[in-house]
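Work Package 3 (structural annotation) set out to generate three-dimensional models for the target panel prioritized at the project kickoff. During this period the team completed the workflow that converts sequence records into discrete structure tokens, so that structures can be stored uniformly alongside our sequence database. As a representative example, we reproduce one entry of 353 residues exactly as it appears in the project archive.
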Amino acid sequence: MKTYFITGGAGFIGGNFIHHLMKTGQTKVINYDKLTYAGNLDTLVSIENNPLYTFEHGDICDANRLKKLFTHYEIDAVVHFAAESHVDRSIEAPGGFIQTNVVGTYELLAVARWYWQELSIARKDSFRFLHISTDEVYGSLGKTGLFTEETAYAPNSPYAASKASSDHLVRAYYKTFDLPVLTTNCSNNYGPYQFPEKLLPLIITKALSGEPLPIYGEGKQIRDWLHVEDHCRAILQVLRNGTVGQVYNIGGLNEKTNLEVVQSLCEILDEMVPGSPYRPHKNLIHHVTDRPGHDHRYAIDASKIQNQLGWQPQESFETGLRKTVRWYLDNQDWTNRVMSGAYRGERLGLEKL
């Protein structure tokens, strides 16, 4: 039975991935998380007593602690989710993104290399370091075209630049030191356990309270939407069957404008919450000034992972969106608990000097 070291496992995608792993019953999981505002162990309360699961509180910038944990738990694979991930926050305060996403990834790579070099030949050959990244490193597309694994990097926000930097570090550790790395770049994720600063849970939360639903600019920005459970299936495929040193783009094949997404959410809420005094919820839509450097369109070409590893998304945007809304309606206590900290649903991403 292999032991996976998951960084950022109390976050949105990391938490969902741990749930996905635990369902297999074939893996030991060490969840290493700093528990910043977006990390919440409520996400994992159902497995906290599972003997195959262990939580360790810590920072990926703490190399000494990482060394002790790698040695103690005899790690077989690292899946690196830990990152500052919200574009608006990166506009307000870029420094934290550089520290966590760049310096933290470096420290994790350095420790992984140190640990990997001392393994037996058999364990050395099977060890993997999987880095989870984003399509935002590629910049913005025009009306046509798709991001491929060969698309040149052109990050436009401090967040995207920090993730691009971490991607380059991961590649360098493979090219220079032969560390067995893999990288995935995904499109916009949605689904359960997402912190309510991101579009879908933010809109759902505000709509239920009758608050204005903010749309940046005209809402014509286009994103490719990927259900988080489909993403988790893809990550596990890459981890188990991906070719060392390769990059795999993961997309949901669901291009929608932000305005279309919010309008669809409003229609589903009208149906699922018939007693709401705020129906029709689309009347709550409120256009606000666009954020600086807002990319117009992202879209992923996922043919490589489909053709080489046999992965396909199982959720359409329509089925995934309905499941997502239902989850947030049924788990409002979770939302209320994670919102009890510093974030209250206010506008972020306004430039500050």
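The two ends are 51 Å apart (CA to CA).
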